[in-house]
Design goal:
elongated, 2 domains, two-stranded antiparallel sheet, 170 residues, three-stranded antiparallel sheet
Length: 170
C-alpha cells in the first residue's frame, strides 16, 4: 500500500504542474474526463463552470456524509481523537457560546473589580468573552455563577474532522 502522505504530496505537485501549465494556455484539461476545455470560449467556460460547481457540491456532500458517519462512530467509541494506523482523526468544532453582555455586566454590580471584569470581557471589534476566565469566576462565587449562567447561551456550531497522517509504521 502506498504511503498516504507521499501520495498526497505527489498529487499536490501534479495539481500545481497542471495549474502552471493551464495558465500558459486557455485550454484546460478536465481532471475527471481528460477532455480539453477552451476557457476562452465563453460558452464552453460557462458549461464547464456549471459542471465543476455541480461536482464540487457532490464532493462537499460526500465530505459531510463521511464526516457524519465517522463522527458518529467516534461518539459510539466515546473518543474525540482516534488513531488507526498512520491516520489520526480529531473531532473539531462543535458547541460555541454566546454571552449576554448586559447580564455579564452584573458581575461588576456583584462586586467583581473592574480590572478583573476587563480580563473576562475584552474589547475586540465586538466584545469577546474569555470562557476560561468566566469558568474561574463561576467556580469562585455562586452569585457570579448564577449571573454567568443567565448570560450564557449554547449555540451548536459546525463539527468536522481533522485528518493527520503520522510518520512511521502503520
Amino acid at each position: 500500500m502506498t504511503d498516504p502522505t507521499t501520495e498526497l504530496k505527489r498529487e499536490m505537485v501534479q495539481a500545481h504542474d497542471r495549474v502552471v501549465e493551464s495558465l500558459q494556455s486557455t485550454e484546460l484539461v478536465d481532471p475527471q474526463t481528460g477532455e480539453l476545455v477552451n476557457a476562452a470560449d465563453l460558452q464552453q467556460a460557462g458549461v464547464y463552470l456549471d459542471i465543476l460547481r455541480r461536482r464540487k457540491r457532490e464532493i462537499d456532500d460526500q465530505i459531510k456524509l463521511v464526516e457524519a458517519i465517522a463522527l458518529n462512530e467516534m461518539a459510539l467509541l466515546g473518543q474525540g481523537t482516534v488513531r488507526k494506523g498512520r491516520v489520526q482523526l480529531t473531532r473539531q468544532g462543535g458547541k460555541k457560546y454566546e454571552y449576554d453582555l448586559e447580564e455579564l455586566a452584573k458581575l461588576q454590580d456583584a462586586g467583581l473589580p473592574e480590572d478583573r471584569y476587563s480580563e473576562v470581557v475584552k474589547p475586540v471589534v465586538d466584545w469577546k468573552v474569555d470562557r476560561n476566565a468566566l469558568k474561574q469566576l463561576s467556580a469562585a462565587n455562586p452569585e457570579y455563577r448564577q449571573i454567568i449562567e443567565n448570560a450564557t447561551t449554547e449555540v451548536e456550531g459546525r463539527t468536522w474532522l481533522r485528518v493527520d497522517f503520522q510518520r512511521g509504521e502503520a
